[in-house]
């Protein structure tokens, strides 16, 4: 051995060797797709790589960051969570082939709307326990709600020291501090911040469901975080699949505890069962299991109807406890959500929601004429002016549900295609049209106040959402009596207002998050004014929503109204703005997924505009208001059905002629495609 090899190297020799050594760094897999295919280093500028822009190439965007560890893992894209890739199995083999129902005493009476089956308990093999990490404060991308509950001696935080292990307690705290407010959407909801947490004290099934939702929230946060090196990415070693698998375990425990209680004859109040149904619906909507979410909602509506029937019985010696209005309102909103989804995508049976399975006011048994289905139930009480947003929202939800019940009854009686009603019975809905007008007048002062000093972004968004929902309900109800898509052209002003209100919400979110993450747009590395200013309206710089991350809320917001604009408004500029808002700010509102809705609307638009000249919004010579710029009646279609493949993030979409009466004749406009999101 050369003795010189054992001698320490001089500083000069070490420096020389360091310069000669080739740099070695971990491979980066977060560049844009074009640069990866060309095998060149990407500058990772968002949303368009500057290398592609300067070279005249089209930047196809960035793949989702998906770190690999512990072998192959499921892909988690930066959208909204998928359903489990493998159906969870019951820990008890003897139970693996059984199904269970959330039911009540009369569930076996042969009702056509029987409660749904609960899937077998979801138990996923648990990973070896890791050493416990030091606790760290959680972050939320949305500004803290000013009226969120602060836990005090009056509203004490639930004690979790005896109920949970250390890992479960972390997710429970995450739910309490962040998820509960996120699930409320644009409105304050004591249901999530108070009722659910209170019930979790005494009900193990609800505790585990709460933990599962907290884990899903963390999954979404990890799946949508920025690539490594971004200022807002954290140093946690765990990944989205870790939190997702834990959420599945907790969901399985929740189902198992409730099933054991029901089978063991333990008494469970209707309140407990209904809260459980809401939590299960929320979980299934979060992961994209829309069909089971609809079945859960139908079970809750059936139970509520049975409770109302019991309370109407005069011979009962002791009246059952009255369910609080908060829980009833929750199911009203879920019913509206499920029915709106069914009206848009036309799910096959048994996933068709029935709002009133027991009879009129929505489904008379054997009506002999339209007069037996008059203007529907008594008109909801609408004041001259709403004092609060909550009052206006409750009134609108009740009115919308009544309108949907009325339309459901008429559709059942007349049996029209795709729930379209005959024109000659339009007079039957005059009372509801008057109610919608009265609501709009009473809401006007609140609508005008949305830009007042002191109104928060959340309050402003709630006001906008209420108005958007009222406009959507009015448009769909009145056009529901027509067999022609041309009648939607009369509502262009309403469509424009919906887009304006939605854009206010999304822009407020973007500016708030940009200020929180980057301080100002001038210093924001996500903002490229030189690029966005070169784009024509509506693709201007305010539409580049680079800071908005995927989100989930159980309540409806901007997605359904924008979907109506994108599919029913034929103004070429407006419908493109609606599609842009849907796909550029990914969110799931209950069962409504913005990316799926935007892709479906884009396909409908392309079909209808096949015979039109190319759309050039920057051309002064193009008259967008002329009849020639609108699709002809022969080219217009409506969504007929959508079938999901959640594992591949694909859907099969079918469209065709509106109101086609003769099903024996082939539909010349029928199309089918597969879309991804």
Write a structural description.
Pfam families: Fungal_trans_2, Zn_clus. Residues 9-18, 129-148 have a biased composition (Basic and acidic residues). Residues 1-35, 55-152, 360-383 are annotated as: Disordered. β6 (638-645) and β7 (650-656) form a beta hairpin. 43% of the residues lie in helices and 5% in strands. Among the domains are: 26-63, Zn(2)-C6 fungal-type DNA-binding domain (CD2-Gal4), CATH 4.10.240; 161-227 and 235-266, no CATH class; 269-312 and 321-353, no CATH class; 370-599, no CATH class. The strands form three sheets. It has a three-stranded mixed β-sheet. It has a three-stranded antiparallel β-sheet with strand order 6-7-8, covered by helices on one side. α4 (166-183) packs across α6 and α10 (325-345) packs across α11 (389-414). The relative contact order is 0.09. Mean pLDDT is 73; it is low at 1-12, 64-78, 83-162, 227-236, 359-377 and 530-542. The chain is mainly α and 677 residues long. The chain has helices at residues 11-20, 33-38, 50-54, 166-183, 190-199, 204-223, 240-263, 270-287, 290-311, 325-345, 389-414, 430-448, 457-479, 492-518, 529-532, 559-568, 572-584, 594-608, and strands at 100-101, 117-118, 551-553, 587-589, 592-593, 638-645, 650-656, 671-676. It is globular, with a radius of gyration of 27 Å.
């Amino acid at each position: 051995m050369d003795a010189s090899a054992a001698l320490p190297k001089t500083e000069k020799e070490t420096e020389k060797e360091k310069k000669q050594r080739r740099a070695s760094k971990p491979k980066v897999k977060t560049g844009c797709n074009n640069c990866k295919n060309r095998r060149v280093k990407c500058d990772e500028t968002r949303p368009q790589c500057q290398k592609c822009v300067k070279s005249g190439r089209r930047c196809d965007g960035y793949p989702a960051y998906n770190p690999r560890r512990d072998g192959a893992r499921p892909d988690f894209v930066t959208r909204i969570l998928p359903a489990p890739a493998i159906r969870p199995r019951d820990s008890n083999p003897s139970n693996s082939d059984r199904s269970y129902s959330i039911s009540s005493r009369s569930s076996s009476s042969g009702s056509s709307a029987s409660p749904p089956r609960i899937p077998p308990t979801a138990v996923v093999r648990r990973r070896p326990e890791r050493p416990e990490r030091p606790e760290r404060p959680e972050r939320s991308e949305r500004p803290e709600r000013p009226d969120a509950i602060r836990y005090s001696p009056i509203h004490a935080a639930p004690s979790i020291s005896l109920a949970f292990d250390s890992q479960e307690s972390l997710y429970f705290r995450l739910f309490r501090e962040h998820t509960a407010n996120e699930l409320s959407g644009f409105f304050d909801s004591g249901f999530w911040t108070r009722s659910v947490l209170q019930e979790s004290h005494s009900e193990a099934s609800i505790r585990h469901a709460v933990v599962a939702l907290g884990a899903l929230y963390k999954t979404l946060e990890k799946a949508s975080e920025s690539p490594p090196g971004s200022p807002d990415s954290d140093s946690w070693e765990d990944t989205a699949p870790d939190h997702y698998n834990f959420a599945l375990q907790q969901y399985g425990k929740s189902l198992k505890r409730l099933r054991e209680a029901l089978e063991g004859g333990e008494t469970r109040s209707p309140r407990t069962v209904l809260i459980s149904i809401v939590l299960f619906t929320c979980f299934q909507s979060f992961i994209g299991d829309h069909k089971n979410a609809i079945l859960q909602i139908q079970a809750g509506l059936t139970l509520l109807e049975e409770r109302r029937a019991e309370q109407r019985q005069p011979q009962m010696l002791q009246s059952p406890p009255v369910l609080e209005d908060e829980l009833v309102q929750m199911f009203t909103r879920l019913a509206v959500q499920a029915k709106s989804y069914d009206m848009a995508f036309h799910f096959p049976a048994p996933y068709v929601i029935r709002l009133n399975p027991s009879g009129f006011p929505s489904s008379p048994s054997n009506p002999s004429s339209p007069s037996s289905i008059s203007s529907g139930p008594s008109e909801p009480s609408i004041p001259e002016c709403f004092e609060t947003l909550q009052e206006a929202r409750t009134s609108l939800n009740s009115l919308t549900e009544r309108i949907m019940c009325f339309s459901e009854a008429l559709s059942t009686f007349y049996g029209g295609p795709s729930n379209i009603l005959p024109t000659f019975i339009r007079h039957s809905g005059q009372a509801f049209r008057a109610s919608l007008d009265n609501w709009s007048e009473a809401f006007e002062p609140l609508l005008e106040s949305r830009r007042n000093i002191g109104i928060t972004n959340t309050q402003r968004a709630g006001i906008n959402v209420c108005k958007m929902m009222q406009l959507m309900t009015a448009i769909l109800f009145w056009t529901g009596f027509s067999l022609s898509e041309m009648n939607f052209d009369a509502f262009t002003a309403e469509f424009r207002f919906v887009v304006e209100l939605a854009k206010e919400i999304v822009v407020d979110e973007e500016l708030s998050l940009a200020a929180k993450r980057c301080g100002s747009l001038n210093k924001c590395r996500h903002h490229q004014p030189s690029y966005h200013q070169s784009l024509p309206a509506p693709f201007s710089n305010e539409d580049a929503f680079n800071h908005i991350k995927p989100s989930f809320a159980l309540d409806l917001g901007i997605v359904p109204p924008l979907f109506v604009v994108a599919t029913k408004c034929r103004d070429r500029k407006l419908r493109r703005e609606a599609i842009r808002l849907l796909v550029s700010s990914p969110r799931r509102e209950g069962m409504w997924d913005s990316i799926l809705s935007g892709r479906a609307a884009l396909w409908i638009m392309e079909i209808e505009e096949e015979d039109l000249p190319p759309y050039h919004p920057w051309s002064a010579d193009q008259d967008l208001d002329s009849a020639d710029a609108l699709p002809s009646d022969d080219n217009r279609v409506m969504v007929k059905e959508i079938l999901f493949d959640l594992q591949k993030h694909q859907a099969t979409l079918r469209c065709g002629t509106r109101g086609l009466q003769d099903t024996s004749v082939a539909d010349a406009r029928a199309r089918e495609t597969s879309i991804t999101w």
